[in-house]
Amino acid sequence: MTVTIVGSQLGDEGKGRVVDLYGAAADVVARYQGGDNAGHTVVEGGNEYKLSLVPSGVVRGKVGVLGNGCVVNPDTLFDEIDTLRERGLDPDVRLARRAHVILPYHRVLDGIEEDVKSDSDRKVGTTGRGIGPTYEDKAGRRGIRVGDLLDSELLREKLEYVVPQKRALAEKVYGVSMSEAIGGSSDESDGVETGEAFDVDALHEQYERYGERLKEENMTVEAGEFLSSRLDAGDEVIFEGAQGTLIDIDHGNYPYVTSSNPTAGGAATGTGLSPGVIGDGDIIGIVKAYLTRVGSGPLPTELGGVVGDTPDYDEQGAGENEDLAEYIREEGGEYGTVTGRPRRVAWLDMPMLRHAARASGFTGLAVNHIDVLAGLDEVKVGYSYDVDGEEIFTIPATTERWGRCEPNFRSFDGWPEVDWSEVADEGYDAIPENAQTYLEYISDELDAPIYAVGIGPSREDTVVLEHPFE
Ligand code: GDP
Ligand code: IMO
Ligand code: MG
């Protein structure tokens, strides 16, 4: 039995906490895409874990897999594993030998390209982790994979081919001198001195060492075989999506997207299991009861923008309701897990959720953060859009058209602040009635039952209606 966890919006819906919730009954938790751009929070017994690569099942001691669809920065991974060990956990993480490796030059190039784009308002607002450039190299058939780290000579050969190209790209295409490029690298945690980001010898030495550690700790696998043998043995497996549907490279608002497929199809291609295996299991859409976004791009139901973040789309409502946005941002702690950036805040967007439900085929929903909205008089939902003289009910394929969409809102009566720990003890019926009405509206619209409701950040702060593994 498998459960796939998919972000239905723009990331940060609370996927990590749902993986943790259902992880109690799972044996293996596998990520299928993305890299250390993800920031998944698990709060358990007063401890908060912010995980970027290690799958969230680690908090419950479950085996973690980074599938072939992931891009792995070994420096972040080992740092994270070491920090978790210091905190008393015992991470058991396996990496697909087919997964691609993020190298320091990917981060540098991510920074350079964002700088160049900011001159023309095209900046994506990436996390600066080198995600796009690494997937570019994967598609360009010049990437370095986890399996290559295990073979020193092969690694050198591949670096000798690709690194001069990257250096030329930085210097000759972007016109950046090496010292400036080096300054563009987002931080010092690349594992090599950033000055060595384009130096074959330095990279070879560092990444060969990572390969040795991977070998010593027996961390690499053929992910598809590993996962299918675990499933054959009767194990329960969770596929942990990162990011969200609207930043999916195919189904999101291109080009303001990440470079992988968070939607459920990604769980097949990103693990080496068949679509049938994914489809036989549950596919749970994770919904934040409102909507947040970090980075650029349209946000039709936006309440208030973070000034200067989205020059192209300010007319969609940014600033109009900044006080309410600010209130929700503070109540919900809506600051990026990875970058600390304040998140833009918006009302729930049903065209977005209809699009997400179609693309991934949600069999159930987990709706988080209903506690954050408690105490408001009114809660709104963008029900449809008006654009170019027509009313539409799902997301247009072009981002420019999405940017012209004006939402039509439905209003729901707010619900009071209550003692959420009592609600957690008593169950669904104790959720304030107006919040139940809101939840049931979402469920009806998406034709998928509510599996769980988040009423606070901690593991205990959930109302569980369905246990997919039971
Ligand atoms: P992910 O990337 O989808 O795993 O989500 P993040 O961890 O980036 O962001 C979700 C944030 O909301 C984290 O700080 C969580 O601890 C918190 N959170 C998750 N569910 C709830 C909820 O139901 N209520 C509240 N108040 N916070 C929640
Ligand atoms: P989790 O898994 C929210 C956004 C970035 C940027 C765009 C591209 O925690 O939900 P990238 O660095 O991936 O090239 O950036 O995608 N983004 C996320 N937003 N949550 C995430 O992950 C994100 N990962 C990337 O802000 O707009
Ligand atoms: Mg996150």
Percent in helix: 25-40%
Identify low-pLDDT runs: 183-194, 307-311
Rg of Cα set: 22 Å
Secondary structure class reads alpha/beta
Instruction: Provide mean pLDDT, rounded.
Output: 93
SS strand fraction: 15-25%
The largest sheet, given as strand count, sense and whether it forms a barrel, is: 10 strands, mixed
Spatial order of strands in the largest sheet: 9-7-5-2-10-1-11-16-20-21
Oligomer: single chain
Fold and architecture overview:
Helix content is 35%, strand content 19%. It is of the alpha/beta class. Strand 17 and strand 18 form a beta hairpin. Helix 5 packs across helix 7. The chain is globular, with a radius of gyration of 22 Å. The protein binds guanosine-5'-diphosphate, 6-O-phosphoryl inosine monophosphate and magnesium ion. The site of 6-O-phosphoryl inosine monophosphate (IMO) has 23 residues, from helix 4. The site of 6-O-phosphoryl inosine monophosphate has 23 residues, from helix 4.
Summarize, please:
The protein contains 16 helices and 21 strands. It has helices spanning 15-23, 74-86, 104-118, 131-139, 152-173, 178-184, 200-216, 223-232, 265-269, 275-280, 322-332, 350-360, 370-373, 399-404, 420-426, 433-446; strands at 2-7, 28-31, 40-44, 47-51, 63-66, 71-72, 93-96, 100-101, 220-221, 237-240, 282-288, 291-293, 302-304, 344-346, 348-349, 364-368, 378-387, 390-392, 406-413, 450-454, 462-464. β3 and β4 form a beta hairpin.
